Amino acid sequence: MLGRLAPGVGAQVTMVVNNQQTRNMATLKAISIRLKSVKNIQKITQSMKMVSAAKYTRAERDLKAARPYGEGAVLFYERAEVAQPEDEPKQLYIAMTSDRGLCGAVHTGVSKVIRARLSEPGAENIKVICVGDKSRGILQRLYGKHIISVANEIGRLPPTFLDAARLADAVLTSGYDFGSGKIIYNKFKSVVSYAQADLPLFSRKAVEAAPKLAVYDSLDSDVLQSYMEFSLASMLFYALKEGACSEQSSRMTAMDNASKNAGEMIEKLTLTFNRTRQAVITRELIEIISGAAALD
Questions:
Q1: What interhelical angle do 161-172 and 221-295 show, nearest 10?
Q2: The whole model's pTM is what?
Q3: Bigger pLDDT: 67 or 20?
């Protein structure tokens, strides 16, 4: 009875078997393509981790030399007891990020601090200068009217004091007369730790009104103006170095996690591929055996 089939039934059975084989082969091909793609991604993330590790070593070494610049400038404002002028409510915030991504929440953290301040009362007196496209991309959608300037090409090369001097010149020539402000940046702590911090910004009027400015001798208007320009460049240089070191360490950690996740996905896809292939082989053997038994 098994060897006798109605007319046309054999063709239908053959068509069903062929469709199943084609579907299984398509599934195997899709898994194979995805497996190859994940392996390529793992190679890229591993390479990026190695590059970031080398850049991090240099960034950490440069940061040690740059710290006296920022700490010295901040110490001057603290010793002179410079305060925000009450009759000048305008403030300036500088977001220190870069143009490059794939480094965790480094840029998001800086933008989140500024975004929280812009959502508070009195935000109409605050303007923002974005250093790097990442902060501009995060803040522009909701707070685009507060952004007065954007600095590009940040993060591709190690920052230098010349870059900080150009940023300081852009801040001073922006046409925005502010009484005080802050430089928001990522402060490096360790390879796996960083935190958002800020450096103070004051106008020349606020510095001249400082109660203990007389402690520093020979500070006429020209000397004071020159020092304020130099201190702004020093603090920006320090913030750039801190941000660069935090960015490279965060990218190194992110790429390491991405490589591990890719490895786990490769194991799962390999297991799925082997199981699917074994199921195809087993099904074909059953069909061959069943056909041979039907002919007997």
A1: 110
A2: 0.83
A3: 67
